[in-house]
Fold this sequence. Notes:
By secondary structure, the chain is of the alpha+beta class. It has 2 helices and 7 strands, in the order ααβββββββ. The strands form 3 sheets. The protein has a 3-stranded antiparallel β-sheet with strand order 2-5-6, with no helix packed on it. The protein has a two-stranded antiparallel ribbon with strand order 1-7. Strand 3 (74-87) and strand 4 (93-110) form a beta hairpin.
Amino acid sequence: xxxASRNEPRESALAAAHAKGEHESGRVDxxxxxxxxxxLSQLIEEAVADINASVGKRxxxxxxxxxxxxGIAETVLVTQQIDGFELxxxxxxxxxxxxxxxxxxxxxxPRRSTRGPKLYVxxxxxxxxxxxxxxxxxxx
Length: 140
Ligand SMILES: [Zn+2]
């Protein structure tokens, strides 16, 4: 008889006890369900530790053409004032541009790509999403 088949009755008894909630106070040695739960909680703890270790780390991004991202593309509503209209040769009203304009700063918001994420601007003014860029450590 192999070790595996010899362990089967004990393992199924442990799994049944686990299903009834009898292992809630702690991991029971040899219980396959406890091992699954323990393995998952270990993975979660390690992932959280990885995230915590990188919080606050300064990084920068380079666009696919190798240029640094230096800004966020944003839009803001502007009202260009006019000094009335004049009719053109077809009788259509054409605005007479004023030199005054009003910038509505409260309307400022990031532009987004058609895929959804925010658009960032590189040193030459091209726009990119972070997923298309390369992260590097600052000073690296
Ligand atoms: Zn268990």
